[in-house]
């Protein structure tokens, strides 16, 4: 009888551990970062002047000549620092690196350096609508 109860307890522990691992995997696959990497976004793209060598949230030095961006506060996560984003506007595109967070941006908006923005549009436009997605 004792062996039978120990066997049942062992199988119960294995089932609970299996379900726990599956739940952890499910939650990880639904995390914001993973969902963001599988989806295309549309937002307003603006540009800003960056002080030479400025360190943003990611602590990656950047200048106006670098192809870098800032993500909205809602999307920003330190694990995204250094990751690449491809931004497309009709037939033009640019790949930028995430180096900062944008406090004034709405959820799917980005702020670029002037060098990156110039590859998509004329600075006189100020703000342009583009699609973008995370690169793997």
TrEMBL record:
Residues 83-130 form the RlpA-like protein double-psi beta-barrel domain. InterPro entries: Expansin_CellWall, RlpA-like_DPBB, RlpA-like_sf. CDD domains: DPBB_RlpA_EXP_N-like. Keywords: Signal. It comes from the Eukaryota. Residues 1-17 form the signal peptide. Pfam families: DPBB_1 (PF03330). This is 6558_t:CDS:1.
